[in-house]
Amino acid sequence: MKFAMSARPDLNWLRAFTFVIYGITVLSSSYFPLYFSHLGFSGSQIGYLYAVGPFISMFTNMFWSMTSDRYQTIQKIMMVLLIGQLVMITFLSYMSSFYIIFIFITMFNFFWYPLNPLTDTMAIQTAQRYGKNFIIIRVFGSIGYAFFALFIGYVLGAAGTSSTMYICMGVITLAFLFSTRLRDSKAQSKKKMKISELWTILRQKELLWFFACVFCLAIPYRMNDAFIALTLKQLGASEGLIGWSMLASAVSEIPIFFLLNKYGDKFKELPLLAFASLMFAVRFLFMSMTHEPSMVIIIQMMHSVTFGIYYVTAVRYITRMIPDQFRATGLGLFAVVWSSAAGLMSGLFGGMLFENAGRSSFYFVAVGLSFLAFIGFLSRHLLNSSGSTSTHMNG
Question: What is the average pLDDT across 264-281?
Answer without folding.
Answer: 92
